[in-house]
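Write out this protein's structure.
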Amino acid sequence: MFFLRSTDWVAQAQSGAPITTVYDGVGSTLAASLNIVQPRGKVVFFGMAAGDPAPVDPVAMLSSSKSLLTGDLWDYLSDHSARLKRSQRLFSYFQAGKINLTPAQKFDLSAGRAAYKRLLSEHTGKIILTVGNKSSDVVRTAD
């Protein structure tokens, strides 16, 4: 896994073992994802968190036998029983300890700069800005 905010993830990916599958939920990185996946590899495109991707040339993909897979969540969870089945499976992973959530980090609004710096670091998880929260778990340093 490569963290996109602080490393040259394309160079890092190309220096290691061949990449057979890339999961791209960023959108604007789709062209790079297609470039780094090996011939006969797959790119699973599932979101546009950073904006729309550039158009993809299917002929270029054909020449290297690469596949682009997409899907919308609601095509897979099209009715109540499908949603119930998937949610029960997900919740069972939490109960079994197979999925652990990173606790949210809370910053007072006055510490917005520190929150932003943390967001740009290799932070994973949620950052919450609060106003007037007196709780001891809120970062108050305004750096």
